[in-house]
Write a structure and sequence with these properties.
- This protein is α+β, with helices and mostly antiparallel strands and about 210 residues long.
- The protein has 2 domains: about 70 residues, no CATH class; about 120 residues, Jelly Rolls, CATH 2.60.120.10.
- It is built from 6 helices and 11 strands.
- Strands 1-2-3-10-5-8 form a 6-stranded antiparallel sheet, covered by helices on one side. A 3-stranded antiparallel sheet has the order 7-6-9, with no helix packed on it.
- The longest helix has 20 residues.
- It is globular, with a radius of gyration of 19 Å.
- This is Anti-sigma-E factor ChrR.
- It comes from Marinobacter zhanjiangensis.
- InterPro entries: Anti-sigma_ChrR, Anti_sigma_zinc_sf, ChrR-like_cupin_dom, RmlC-like_jellyroll, RmlC_Cupin_sf.
- Pfam families: Cupin_7.
Length: about 210
C-alpha cells in the first residue's frame, strides 16, 4: 500500500499534460498502483473536459480544486477490476529485470544507471539508483529539485519509510541519509533538475565527482 503520494498541484499538471516526459512517467507508474491518486486524476480529467466543452475562459481557484479533491478523498477508493495488466511503460523502457541492468558502482552501497539519453530533448537528469539491502547512502542535500519513485524494496530516512511505488519530492532545503530496509535491494527512479550535493567532510571531497 502506497503512503506517499504526489501533491495536488503535480496531479493537476499531469492531468493537464504539462509535465515533462520523465516526471509524467513517475506519476503514471505511481497511478498504476495507487487507486487513491487515480481517482483524483480521473476527477481532474473530468473537470478539465467540462471546462473545455464550455469553450470559455474559466477561472477555478486553488480552494475549489482542494474542495473537489477533499470530496474525492472522503469517498472509498474504487476496487480494481481483475484483468490482464498491460506491459508497464517502465518494462517497455528498461525490460523486466531491473537487477540485470548495467549498473555502475558509485559508492560502497550505491549503484547508479543514468538513463537521461532515453528521454531526448529533456533538460533534467533521469537516473536509476540501487541501494543494497541494509545499505546506507551518504548524507546529502540537493542543488535543485529531485522527484523520486520507489520501484523495488524500501528505504527510510528522517521523513519516514518509503515503500514500493511511494512518491517523494525533495528540494534544496531537504537533507537526508537514505537507508535501505533489509530484504530486497532498494531501486528508485529519480528525476533531478540539478546534481545532488553530498554533505559531511568525506562527502564534500566526493562532490566534484558526482554528476
Amino acid at each position: 500500500m502506497t503512503r506517499h503520494h504526489p501533491d495536488s498541484l503535480m496531479l493537476m499538471e499531469y492531468s493537464a499534460g504539462n509535465l515533462s516526459e520523465p516526471h509524467a512517467l513517475c506519476i503514471r507508474l505511481h497511478l498504476d498502483k495507487c487507486a487513491h491518486c487515480r481517482s483524483r486524476v480521473d476527477a481532474l480529467d473530468s473537470l478539465g473536459a467540462v471546462m473545455m466543452e464550455q469553450q470559455s475562459q474559466v477561472s477555478v481557484s486553488e480552494s475549489t480544486f482542494d474542495s473537489i479533491l477533499a470530496r474525492i478523498d472522503s469517498e472509498p477508493a474504487p476496487q480494481p477490476t481483475p484483468r490482464t495488466p498491460p506491459r508497464s511503460p517502465l518494462s517497455k523502457l528498461l525490460g523486466d529485470d531491473l537487477d540485470g541492468l548495467p549498473w555502475k558502482r558509485q559508492l560502497r552501497d550505491v549503484s547508479v544507471l543514468d538513463i537521461t539519453d532515453r528521454f531526448p530533448g529533456q533538460k533534467d537528469q533521469v537516473i536509476l539508483q540501487k541501494l543494497c539491502a541494509g545499505g546506507k547512502a551518504p548524507a546529502h542535500t540537493h542543488r535543485g529539485e529531485e522527484t523520486t519513485l520507489v520501484l523495488q524494496g524500501a528505504f527510510s530516512d528522517n521523513r519516514g519509510v518509503f515503500n514500493q511505488w511511494d512518491f517523494v519530492v525533495l528540494g534544496q532545503e531537504d537533507e537526508h541519509k537514505p537507508v535501505a530496509l533489509e530484504g530486497d535491494d532498494c531501486i528508485t527512479l529519480s528525476v533531478l533538475s540539478a546534481p545532488l550535493k553530498l554533505t559531511g567532510t568525506f562527502g564534500r571531497l566526493l562532490n566534484p565527482f558526482i554528476r
